[in-house]
Design brief:
Radius of gyration: 12 Å
Number of strands: 0
Distance between the termini: 23 Å
Strand content: under 5%
Largest sheet: none
Oligomer: single chain
Helix content: 55-70%
């Protein structure tokens, strides 16, 4: 998160991916999804992290909302709003 807040998005994405190789935590999937969404990643890149977040933390309301939003956008993910 510090890399993200510091504006080093590429490094933040890399750190999240490394973290997921060692520990599968819902908050890491969430952070990676946020980073990818902010950088208008393709849906196929973001969707697996949202789905895994939903599976690991079914009480999380953000993941299903974002999955629904993604289903309305065919190829890329501009942030809503």
């Amino acid at each position: 998160m510090a890399a993200h807040w510091g504006g080093n998005t590429a490094f933040a994405v890399e750190l999240c991916r490394r973290a997921l190789e060692e520990f599968e935590l819902p908050q890491v999937h969430r952070q990676l999804a946020i980073l990818l969404l902010e950088n208008q990643a393709r849906r196929r890149e973001v969707q697996p992290h949202l789905e895994r977040l939903q599976a690991l933390a079914p009480q999380d309301e953000w993941a299903p909302r974002m999955l629904s939003w993604l289903s309305q956008h065919a190829t890329h993910t501009p942030l809503p709003g």
